[in-house]
Write a structure and sequence with these properties.
Elements: E1 3-7, E2 10-14, E3 21-25, E4 31-37, E5 40-45, E6 64-68, E7 76-77, E8 86-93, E9 96-102, E10 106-109, E11 117-118, E12 141-147, E13 155-160, E14 163-167, E15 175-177, E16 192-195, E17 203-207, E18 210-214, E19 222-223, E20 232-238, E21 246-251, E22 267-272, E23 280-281, E24 296-297, E25 305-308, E26 314-317, E27 325-328, E28 334-339
Antiparallel strand pairs: 1-2, 1-28, 2-3, 4-5, 5-6, 6-7, 8-9, 9-10, 10-11, 12-13, 13-14, 14-15, 16-17, 17-18, 18-19, 20-21, 21-22, 22-23, 24-25, 25-26, 26-27
Length: 340
């Protein structure tokens, strides 16, 4: 397993055991999302993506996805439906790559990113007319794509702002979940999704109004934010085997994520061991953490987690997220992190 960080200066590969960092490219471009399968790496690029975040929302040039089929030595743009698209999420699942965009749509590729197709458009979903992003031009986008850990054809995606959608056929067709029952709905502004591999019916959603937990594979949700302070949550990671344990990064509002200095807004890394009923602050990270949109559970080592920061540091925990230590520093601004 290696860690792949999308940064404001391309993709970096990190050895999680010794902290050795390798720059892969593509050079001199911000990478908003990363997906890896074997020697193939996809990186979603957006020019001028950094501080403040998501500026510009709809750049007129330089968008799309770059692909490497030789582990990052050489890169070429993905064409077709991704040509010029603003891709905001990438994942590998169900034997193919999946890409989410702004405005919100989801495409899939079964030939390692060479060609892409779109299934049922998200715009045709019953609730899509209500999706809205608070900043101009107010288009909702796909914030995250999370494959089911044991059922390969099932995929979940979080829409900012729209809620959770699910596919049962490998990402071709999607439907909304967790939104039909007002008393058991998830907050529609999804910043992060996490599934416990050892108990995949248990899901965590990070939202501006705290953490929501589902024990029904996303069908019904409950707010679990007691003692969670602050409430504005970005990334979330679930424990590999214990569904009661999860970690989130919370800040004091959107301004803390849009590039304001950490000491003015700050963020905390919070942990639960009782499925979100209570939360406590972890030890070993800076007092004023710069908010991050990424938090990774090691898929191979139970109890190991990775926390990247906008400021270019990467922290590791080997005790279920209770305490942390610095693994790497000096990386450019980290925008995404995945394990592959």
């Amino acid at each position: 397993m290696r860690l792949y960080a999308g940064t404001t200066q391309g993709v970096f590969k990190v050895n999680p055991d010794n902290g050795i960092v390798t720059r892969l490219g593509p050079l001199d471009t911000s990478v908003e999302a990363v997906a890896v399968q074997g020697d193939t790496i996809l990186s979603a690029i957006t020019p001028d993506y950094g501080m403040p975040m998501r500026a510009p929302l709809h750049p007129s040039h330089g968008r799309g996805v770059m692909r490497s089929t030789d582990s990052g030595r050489h890169w070429a743009p993905c064409g077709g439906l991704l040509d010029g698209a603003q891709v905001t999420a990438l994942a590998w699942g169900a034997g193919g790559f999946i890409a989410g965009t702004d405005p919100a749509s989801i495409l899939h590729s079964y030939d390692l990113g060479a060609t892409w197709a779109e299934g049922t458009p998200l715009s045709g979903l019953a609730g899509a007319s209500r999706w809205d992003y608070p900043l101009p031009p107010h288009t909702a986008h796909v914030m995250t794509i999370v494959p089911h850990p044991t059922r390969s054809m099932i995929q979940y995606a979080g829409i900012e702002v729209g809620g959770v959608v699910m596919s049962s056929d490998g990402g071709c067709n999607w439907h909304e979940i967790g939104a039909t029952n007002p008393s058991a709905s998830v907050h529609p502004d999804i910043h992060g999704l996490a599934i416990c591999p050892g108990a995949p019916n248990v899901m965590y959603a990070a939202t501006p109004d705290g953490i929501y937990v589902s024990e029904t594979a996303g069908a019904m949700w409950a707010s679990r934010s007691n003692t969670l302070d602050p409430l504005y949550c970005r990334a979330v990671a679930a424990h590999q085997t214990d569904p009661d344990m999860a970690i989130t990064v919370a800040t004091w509002g959107a301004s803390g994520f849009f590039g304001r200095e950490a000491h003015r807004t700050g963020a905390r890394v919070m942990r639960t061991v009782d499925r979100g009923l209570t939360w406590t602050q972890v030890q070993g990270v800076p007092e004023h953490v710069q908010p991050t949109p990424a938090l990774v559970a090691d898929p191979l080592v139970t109890g190991r987690f990775f926390l990247p920061l906008f400021s270019g540091e990467l922290y590791v925990s080997t005790d279920d997220g209770a305490t942390w230590e610095l693994l790497v520093e000096g990386i450019p601004t980290i925008l995404r992190l995945i394990a592959a």
